[in-house]
Design a protein that fits this description.
single chain, globular
Length: 313
């Protein structure tokens, strides 16, 4: 049991980083773009087309999705627990550096002067200023690590999402993915379709529509909405589709990456779930060794294991 739990724990965070790093290669691309740049599909980091957007990152680097997940992880390691205000401080420190790929909503929230002192108030105010319409996937993209917490997963997922994304569709998305990852990693019965929809209803009925789409669609490309690429429910539906309809980590990784759209975020979330389902041992070595900051990620995971896993095994 202990070995399998650790394998899935490690697989979750590696899945996030790998999906993010490879997904960058097709981020914002349409089917036509992908067919032109990758006639045989994108499969390896070294294939990533170096246009003006992508060449800002080195091959094997991840984007803001994993950067922000690591902000959460670093706070948990620092405090040996969860302090929402300290997570906000980590977000702010990251944003004050060189936050490559930072989303519009996240940027608006983090750049307000008293954010660190009043993160929830600031986040709520920015949401209100959008006429309560902003529901970007910037909360969902980083939530994988929350699913690894040993307890209070739902409460933590809600509050960590609300540090920047206050919309209930964002919050519900984070709770669903975090709870699913938690069940997979800790060897519990994963939530059924009915249970996921019941959970979704607690936040926003629209979430259920996207859960149903994920369950019923035969092709993930039908879920990738180019007009709403950064929408939290599109990313949620892609992740759930991959969990339900693919048969291995690599199968899920490549189908999501080659679907285009907001591919780095879609693949980061989907592959965090797949890593939790199939484990680190299921991930081909080339994807692990090809990560630019593998050693740093290993140190973070080992520190988190000592806090989250070792005390309860």
């Amino acid at each position: 049991m202990e070995h399998k739990t650790i394998d899935r724990f490690r697989g979750c965070l590696y899945g996030q980083a790998i999906g993010d790093a490879l997904g960058l290669g097709t981020e914002f691309m349409t089917d036509e773009d992908i067919a032109w740049k990758y006639p045989h599909g994108l499969q390896h980091y070294k294939q990533i087309y170096q246009d003006r957007h992508r060449k800002r990152w080195e091959i094997g680097d991840w984007t803001d999705d994993t950067d922000m997940m690591l902000c959460i992880a670093d706070e948990v390691i620092e405090d040996k627990g969860v302090n929402f205000y300290n997570i906000a401080r980590h977000f702010k420190d990251w944003a004050n550096g060189t936050p490559m790929g930072i989303g519009e909503n996240t940027y608006k929230v983090l750049m307000i002067g008293d954010y660190v002192e009043h993160p929830f108030d600031v986040s709520h105010k920015v949401w209100e200023m959008s006429k309560c319409q902003s529901a970007a996937n910037g909360g969902l993209m980083r939530t994988s690590v929350v699913g690894l917490f040993p307890k209070e997963v739902r409460t933590c997922a809600e509050n960590i999402c609300r540090l920047t994304h206050y919309d209930p569709r964002c919050v519900g998305s984070c709770v669903i993915v975090s709870e699913l990852i938690h069940a997979l990693v800790y060897g519990m019965q994963p939530p059924t379709l009915f249970q996921i929809k019941s959970l979704a209803q607690l936040y926003d009925a629209e979430i259920c529509e996207y859960v149903d789409k994920a369950w019923c669609e035969s092709d993930v490309k039908n879920l990738v909405d180019y007009d709403h690429m950064g929408y939290t429910l599109v990313t949620l539906s892609v992740a759930l589709w991959t969990y339900w309809h693919t048969t291995s980590f690599v199968d899920g990784l490549l189908v999501v990456v080659n679907a285009g759209g907001d591919a780095d975020t879609n693949a980061a979330v989907a592959c965090a779930v797949l890593g939790a389902k199939y484990g680190y041992s299921s991930i081909p070595n080339e994807y692990i060794e090809g990560l630019l900051y593998k050693e740093s990620l290993d140190k973070t995971i080992d520190s988190l294991l000592n806090i989250c896993i070792k005390p309860i095994l």
